[in-house]
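Supplementary Methods. Inverse-folding protocol.

Structures were first reduced to a discrete structure-token string of length 256. This string, shown here, constituted the complete conditioning input.
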């Protein structure tokens, strides 16, 4: 298994798209700093009446989290779909005939990379925004950093979860375009549809179970969803188990 993990680590480093995706994450962090600067400037220039009515409740790391999640999910897709598109999957499966272990190794590397990138980006966005905002009462940045440790860790973990879902979808669909389209539907379209078309009594419970809503509930943010942090974590694990389980079953049973 160690050899498989080392091989998958080498593969992910050799993909040019990996560095493009990481560059987008860096740009996202830089953009979050610009957003924090704009919020501070707006606060400083606003009158007392404007400040009293101005609603800036979402920290920038929460606003930009979905983009970081999408970047790492695309990386998860490409780790396996790129091999299908080039035909290299045949070589990989000849070298490692136990197909389930091959997918586990890919998922392990993707999850580790996404966890590191997710935590670093979320913490960087928060710390930089906190330095820019200072003691202005904007998005709770005036609170001690020690109070934000668990929420920030939860947001970073959600990036790894979404990346693993992307890896599983890549194994199930074997298509980069199809898997990315499915991811965009899950992350962006389904929450809109649930909020717009479901009855009020169903809307919040259903939305709370969707992947984009789980990070805030895991971070125990007030007013976000109906799940407790352990419940949100259990649903996250269920997403990963179901999608990767389906990918493992299909990669074992069908021809390459």
């Amino acid at each position: 298994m160690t050899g498989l993990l080392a091989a998958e680590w080498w593969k992910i480093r050799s993909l040019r798209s990996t560095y493009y995706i990481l560059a987008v994450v860096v740009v996202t962090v830089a953009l979050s700093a610009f957003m924090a600067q704009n919020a501070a400037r707006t606060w400083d220039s606003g009158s007392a009446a404007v400040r009293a009515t101005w609603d800036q409740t979402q920290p920038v790391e929460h606003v930009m989290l979905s983009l970081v999640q999408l970047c790492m999910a695309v990386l998860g897709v490409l780790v396996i779909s790129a091999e299908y598109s080039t035909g290299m999957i045949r070589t990989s499966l000849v070298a490692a005939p136990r197909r389930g272990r091959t997918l586990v190794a890919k998922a392990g590397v993707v999850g580790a990379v996404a966890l590191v990138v997710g935590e670093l980006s979320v913490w960087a966005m928060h710390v930089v925004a906190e330095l820019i905002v200072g003691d202005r009462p904007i998005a709770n940045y005036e609170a001690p950093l020690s109070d934000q440790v668990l929420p920030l860790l939860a947001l970073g973990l959600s990036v790894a979860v979404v990346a693993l879902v992307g890896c599983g979808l890549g194994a199930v669909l074997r298509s980069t375009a199809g898997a990315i389209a499915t991811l965009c539907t899950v992350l962006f379209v389904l929450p809109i549809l649930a909020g717009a078309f479901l009855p009020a009594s169903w809307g919040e419970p259903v939305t709370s179970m969707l992947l984009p809503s789980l990070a805030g509930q895991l971070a125990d943010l007030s007013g976000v969803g109906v799940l407790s942090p352990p419940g949100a974590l259990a649903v996250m694990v269920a997403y990963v188990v179901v999608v990767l389980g389906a990918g493992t079953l299909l990669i074992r049973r069908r021809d390459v």
